[in-house]
Amino acid sequence: MMTLAGFALSYSGFTALCLSLDRHHRDLFQRSPDARRRLLLRSAGWLLLLLSLFAATGSGRSVDIVFWFGLTMATALSLVLLLTYAPRFSTAAALLAVPVAALSWLAEALH
After folding, report:
1. CA–CA separation, 42 vs 38, rounded Å?
2. How sure is the predictor about 63, in pLDDT bands with cuts at 50, 70 and 90?
3. How far lies 42's CA from each of 3, 60, 99, 103, 106, in Å?
4. Distances, alpha carbon 103 to alpha carbons 7, 62, 69, 81, in Å
5. Rounded distance, CA 100 to CA 36, Å?
6. Cα dihedral angle (36, 37, 41, 43), rounded to 10 degrees?
């Protein structure tokens, strides 16, 4: 279950970081982000990546950090493919991924 939370948070974090770039933001919203929005997206992206690290390394095993790196690579690959072939869906998936991650994390904590 923590894999799902780590993946979802990582995906949302990478999406926020991508949207902080002029090119990707303009492709999706037909305008460049202003300075405040760019800072907000970058901060949210890094915070979500940090949370994905905590979600993926929650079991305390020694190989969890290596697992997290592999998880982030898989996440980045899925985001690249979605940004290429379905850019609008990639943003919607990122917004949906945060509550999915929260529910997954909560279910794991209660289990």
Report:
1. 6
2. confident
3. 23, 28, 20, 24, 26
4. 13, 25, 23, 26
5. 27
6. 10
| Residue with token string 């529910």 | 103
Please give the structure tokens belonging to residue 89: 């869906």
Q: Which two structure tokens, joined as six digits, stand for 45?
A: 């992206």
* pLDDT tens track for 2-45: 788 899 999 999 999 999 999 989 988 899 999 999 999 999 99
Q: C-alpha angle 10/75/80, rounded to 5°?
A: 120
Tokens for 85, please give them: 């072939």
pTM of the model: 0.90
What tokens does 72 get?
């982030």
Looking at the chain, how many residues does it have? 111
